[in-house]
## 1
Amino acid sequence: MEYLRAFITGAIICGLSQILIDKTKLTPARILVTYVVLGVVLTGFGLYQPIVDWGGAGATVPLLGFGYSLAKGVIEGIAQSGLIGVLTGGVTGAAGGIAAAVVFGFLVALVFKPKSKS
């Protein structure tokens, strides 16, 4: 049942993204940034945690989940370090995802030999 809830949550997020792409003039990059900011804002107001509790990886893997990780890191950083936690908490909270993106990006670049667009 956990897999089904994660699938449904991720499908809803992706479906909303596709609707935004099809029905608005927003570029995909703006939609991605909007999702990260929305994840931070919803987490700040305590509205995203119930979605994460219900949807699991379906809520934490998409870009809303990246915003959630940043916000959770900032909240924990403030609790531990005070005001300096605003600057350090987000990076600490999302360090695993950032490191994975760099490592996997590097490995894919080694395998597929990227070329410039010119």
## 2
Amino acid sequence: MSTPVTIIMIEDDEGHARLIERNIRRSGVNNEIRPFTNGTEAIEYLFGPDGTGSAHKNEALLVLLDLNLPDMSGIDILRRVKENRFLKYAPVVVLTTTDDEHEIKRCYELGCNVYITKPVNYESFANAIRQLGLFFSVIQVPQATT
């Protein structure tokens, strides 16, 4: 039995967040979405009360990440997630207005799974999210090391 995927949405623009969630729902994905409007709150949630990330070691997470946040860089969040032994298997979808080739390359080098530039064709985005959801329903996510 696979663990349901929780979608962690880190997006400071309320309009974009609503549009993203609406299109995820339209694509038939009914997973829990935990929205965060800044990096600090997202980091506190992801890394938990003890700061290690172990609170999520038995959970399947998918992170939707805007790079341009009011309090920190999404690049820093991406780096921290992918360096953490409990969170590194969580797919990260970067969804941002930045289309700089160097920034895109850097995100992939740090371990992002998909990079989408806003404004985006939300039908394609919703389809990509649905495909990731189907992936999780078929594939067992490796458990984090203890």
